């Protein structure tokens, strides 16, 4: 027991004296969690909240341009500034100068084009119903586009979301005109008030329900996604500290001197692994506490812990041990400290990229999703997501436990064979 305590104390002192390693293992991931969560949360609020400033240039000669503007205002997603008669160049200059993200130009014949389209659809419908014997052929004019100018900094996914919203409002406007035409053909001056209210008020609502095997819906948000992801990244980045430390001890003769101590060399190695396992768990605990208590103070969503805390502890232990085993593997097989640091850091970045830490796996090409299955970070993150986002049960963690357990055993076996071949075991 005294030998174990002595080796543990020695390894703890080595960790505490490694200032760069502590910086990489604690300060960097904490900063990443803050920055990435703030960015993701702000992006969500920009799209879902009333924070998008839009310049609208209404050149329409009719009243449908005004109707579209009222629909955009009613949506609550845009802050509109309406003007007239600006050239394309002037719109672009105003967009960049006034720090707006979007500008919409409604063309001169907007009302005319919608009216012709609605009339054509109405005639076809009445003809199909047998109410009208002939269809009035509308003149074939090229439809004028609704031009949307955007700041180049606005990413494609946001533009896609905004364009879909505008298409929805245009569809609502066209349907309203078709309804008016149908009632006009039937002898009504306007759509009956009760019909108009019924159509506008009793829309089918969309209720969002997050899938959960436990029957209790989790609360997915930027914090629930980013805290587990960057905690896993932080744990694996110990490869720079632990891997480099192993190479340094091997090169300066520490391994040889340890063999002269009347105790098993495996005791020293496992003491080193135990200390860094505690470091990994402390990283997870630190970032988790920040998500629970610090994030709400800066207006970020609070981290909600999974209901199954025992399963969370098991996944945390497996993830920590996976990170430690990989770091030891890199350290044992590297010939120089620079090689361990370089290869270790780059390999973790690659594993993170294909494992879903930076970009969600479902957004990747199918072949890259398959390739990402070899990343230990993918399986660590998958285990935490099952718990933090899905309130999953033990049965849903089987694949994670199997892969991480196999990965740990494989790394340990390779380390043993390498040290045995070098007569360090």
Q: How much of the residues is beta strand, in percent?
A: 5-15%
Structural classification: mainly alpha
Mean pLDDT: 79
Order of helices and strands: HHEHEHEHEHHHHHHHHHHH
Shape: elongated
Count of runs of 4 or more consecutive helical residues: 16
Backbone CA Rg: 31 Å
Distance between the termini: 20 Å
> Strand order of the main beta sheet, please?
2-1-3-4
Q: Summarize the amount of helix as a percent range.
A: 55-70%
| DSSP strand count | 4
Ranges where pLDDT stays below 50 over 5 or more residues in a row are: none
Task: Estimate nothing, just give the exact number of structural domains.
Answer: 2
Largest beta-sheet characterization? 4 strands, mixed
Task: Summarize the entry for a quick read.
The protein has 425 residues and is mainly α. The protein has helices spanning 2-17, 19-48, 64-75, 88-97, 110-128, 156-185, 193-201, 222-236, 239-251, 254-259, 265-294, 309-333, 337-355, 366-371, 376-388, 398-421; strands spanning 52-58, 78-83, 102-106, 147-150. The chain has 2 domains: 2-42 and 215-421, no CATH class; 51-201, abc type-2 transporter like fold (3-Layer(aba) Sandwich).
């Amino acid at each position: 027991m005294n030998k174990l305590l002595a080796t543990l104390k020695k390894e703890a002192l080595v960790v505490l004296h490694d200032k760069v390693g502590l910086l990489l293992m604690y300060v960097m991931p904490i900063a990443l969690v803050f920055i990435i969560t703030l960015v993701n949360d702000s992006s969500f609020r920009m799209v879902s909240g009333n924070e998008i400033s839009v310049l609208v240039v209404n050149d329409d000669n009719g009243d449908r341009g005004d109707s579209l503007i009222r629909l955009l205002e009613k949506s609550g997603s845009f802050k509109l500034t309406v003007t007239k008669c600006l050239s394309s160049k002037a719109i672009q200059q105003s967009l960049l100068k006034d720090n707006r993200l979007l500008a919409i130009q409604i063309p001169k014949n907007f009302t005319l084009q919608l009216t012709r389209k609605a009339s054509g659809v109405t005639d076809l419908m009445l003809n199909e119903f047998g109410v009208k014997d002939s269809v009035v052929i509308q003149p074939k004019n090229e439809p004028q586009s609704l031009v949307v100018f955007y700041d180049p900094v606005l990413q494609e996914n946001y533009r896609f979301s905004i364009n879909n919203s505008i298409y929805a409002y245009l569809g609502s406007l066209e349907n309203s005109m078709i309804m008016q035409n149908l009632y006009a053909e039937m002898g009504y001056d306007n759509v009956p008030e009760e019909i108009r209210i019924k159509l506008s008020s009793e829309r089918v609502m969309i209720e969002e329900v997050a899938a959960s095997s436990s029957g209790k819906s989790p609360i997915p948000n930027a914090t629930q996604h980013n805290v587990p992801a960057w905690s896993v990244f932080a744990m694996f980045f110990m490869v720079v500290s632990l891997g480099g430390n192993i190479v340094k001890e091997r090169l300066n003769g520490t391994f040889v001197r340890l063999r002269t101590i009347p105790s098993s060399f495996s005791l020293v190695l496992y003491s080193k692994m135990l200390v860094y396992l505690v470091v990994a768990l402390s990283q997870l605990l630190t970032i988790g506490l920040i998500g629970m208590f610090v994030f709400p103070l800066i207006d970020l969503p609070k981290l909600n812990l999974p209901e199954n805390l025992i399963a969370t502890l098991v996944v945390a232990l497996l993830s920590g041990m996976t990170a430690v085993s990989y770091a030891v593997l890199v350290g044992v097989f590297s010939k120089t400290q620079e090689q361990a640091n370089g290869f270790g850091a780059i390999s973790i970045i690659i594993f993170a990229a294909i494992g879903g830490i930076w970009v969600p796996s479902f957004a990747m090409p199918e072949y890259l999703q398959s390739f990402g299955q070899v990343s230990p970070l993918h399986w660590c993150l998958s285990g935490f997501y099952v718990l933090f986002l899905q309130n999953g049960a033990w049965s849903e963690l089987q694949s994670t436990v199997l892969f991480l357990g196999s990965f740990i055993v494989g790394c340990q076996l390779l380390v043993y064979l390498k040290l045995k071949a070098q007569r360090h075991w």
